[in-house]
Structure to design on (260 residues):
């Protein structure tokens, strides 16, 4: 078996990839994909700690995290579709109505 | 051990393709690959149930919804589907700094290298604790999914 530190390092790298995507993407759907990667990395940590402590609590939290992610994606994409209807674009740079 | 490293390489490669690719549709497909590789990582951790949930709910549900959103907001053929990155230097600096910080902290920590044997079936214990210790959050999760579903259909309702 691989040591716990390998799982944590893998999750850290995937999290940072997702962070990079979230910061740099122009398209709102692309930003959401980056957020998906970050949430996914956290789940790896939870399951790894759960197994290395031989308890099921981490897996319960992973189930909750997955369900909340699904709700978040459904709402996020509904907002993207709504913004596209109002502005005919999915680019985050053009969604600047809150500028003072 | 070999399975872990194979899935890890696939996961990091697919993750890099998600955030660096020029085609939005390809990014979504690489995200599906990354999520399946994560399910494989869960399998190496003896979490078969979580791996199944990951493939069914995450890869099946999320990727379908994202593809649907792309079809609605972009044309599937033509140049509209390309998406680009901006502020690559700043973003790369922040992400790389955080990665170095985290990996250094992990490598210095005293962490377990072997896992203890599990008493009984972990999936059975997961189901039992979902309906005993974690009943309230479990029920609240159902309410959250209902509210999320209603909100999403309200936002995406047809224009009057």
């Amino acid at each position: 078996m691989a040591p716990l530190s390998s799982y944590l390092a893998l999750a850290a790298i995937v999290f940072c990839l997702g962070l990079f995507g979230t910061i740099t993407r122009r398209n709102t759907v692309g930003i959401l994909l980056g957020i998906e990667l970050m949430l996914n990395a956290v789940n790896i940590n939870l399951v790894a700690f759960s197994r290395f402590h031989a308890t099921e609590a981490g897996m319960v939290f992973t189930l909750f995290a997955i369900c909340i992610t699904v709700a978040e994606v459904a709402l996020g994409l509904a907002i993207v579709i709504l913004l596209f209807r109002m502005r005919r674009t999915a680019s985050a740079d053009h969604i600047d109505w809150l500028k003072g | 051990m070999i399975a872990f490293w194979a899935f890890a390489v696939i996961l990091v490669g697919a993750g890099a393709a998600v955030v660096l690719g020029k085609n939005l549709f390809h990014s979504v497909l690489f995200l599906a690959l990354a999520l399946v590789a994560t399910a494989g990582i869960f399998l190496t951790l003896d979490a078969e149930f979580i791996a199944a949930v990951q493939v069914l709910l995450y890869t099946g549900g999320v990727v379908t919804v994202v593809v649907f959103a792309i079809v609605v907001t972009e044309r599937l053929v033509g140049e509209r589907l390309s998406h680009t990155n901006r502020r690559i230097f700043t973003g790369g600096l922040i992400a790389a700094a955080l990665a170095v910080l985290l990996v250094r902290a992990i490598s210095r920590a005293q962490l377990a290298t072997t896992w203890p044997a599990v008493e009984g079936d972990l999936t059975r214990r997961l189901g039992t604790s979902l309906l005993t210790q974690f009943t309230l959050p479990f029920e609240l999760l159902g309410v959250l999914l209902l509210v999320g579903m209603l909100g999403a259909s309200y936002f995406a309702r047809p224009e009057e």
Q: What stands out?
A: Residues 22 and 31 of chain A are 5 Å apart (CA to CA).
